[in-house]
Amino acid sequence: MGRKWSNIKEKKAAKDANTARVYSKFGRKIYMVAKDGEPDPEANQALKFVLEQAKTYNVPKHIIDRAIEKAKGGSEENYDELRYEGFGPNGCMIIVDALTNNVNRTAAELRAAFNKNGGNLGVSGSVAYMFEATAVIGIEGKDEEEILEILMEADLDARDIQEEEDAVIVYTEPDQYHVVQEAFKQAGVTEFTVAEITMLPQNEVALSEEDQQLFDKMVDALEDLEDVQQVYHNVEI
């Protein structure tokens, strides 16, 4: 794993000073997942996962409760979960996950964000093959040896373990996310610095200063879109 998760979180934190945007995106996701399944996280693994991720972004309880209550209330509001793929400056690769109630609007807004910043939308499959879905779990207060011991006692494996400045980051298979996290909880871990399933690039690329500026503008424009939930890329951080 080439990228340091602490660097990614720092960059996200700087961009997410406008927390209303982050809360809105989580509110929409929580509502959709609760509406599509049970509004009880103990009976809905997808909801449980989103709530755990929301906790690492400090989403307030009232935002979460409001989204779940909206789902319980039988709201007719519906969203489609879509993935877009495209290219940025100098051919860097970008994946955008969106939740939308208007596919035409979302596609037009994404296309504009790409085109105005030296990129273009691609067809399905043009980029995703260079990324790998990965569960990422960050733990504070334990070193790599302790983490390995917990995994071994639970008879679990990890793709990779990296000790960073403030946490140990565990990378594992997406379908192992819940069992790995549960093993840490059983070992006394109560909070996680990161807990999500992400798309990690197989290889990273470095951009020139000019291309980096265009790329940063593109990512900002994409993340500012109401329908966009997540942006993944293969640019070196």
From TrEMBL:
Locations listed in the record: Cytoplasm
Family matches, as InterPro entries: Integrase-like_N, TACO1_YebC-like_2nd/3rd_dom, TACO1_YebC_N, Transcrip_reg_TACO1-like, Transcrip_reg_TACO1-like_dom3, Transcrip_reg_TACO1_YeeN, YebC-like
GO biological process, alphabetically ordered: regulation of DNA-templated transcription
Record's keyword annotation contains Signal: no
Keyword annotations from UniProtKB, A to Z: Cytoplasm, DNA-binding, Transcription, Transcription regulation
Coiled coil: none
Database matches in Gene3D superfamilies: 1.10.10.200, 3.30.70.980
Sample GO molecular function, one term: DNA binding
Domain TACO1/YebC-like N-terminal: 3-74
Pfam family, one: Transcrip_reg
Family: Belongs to the TACO1 family. YeeN subfamily.
Protein name: Probable transcriptional regulatory protein CR194_10485
Protein species of origin: Salipaludibacillus keqinensis
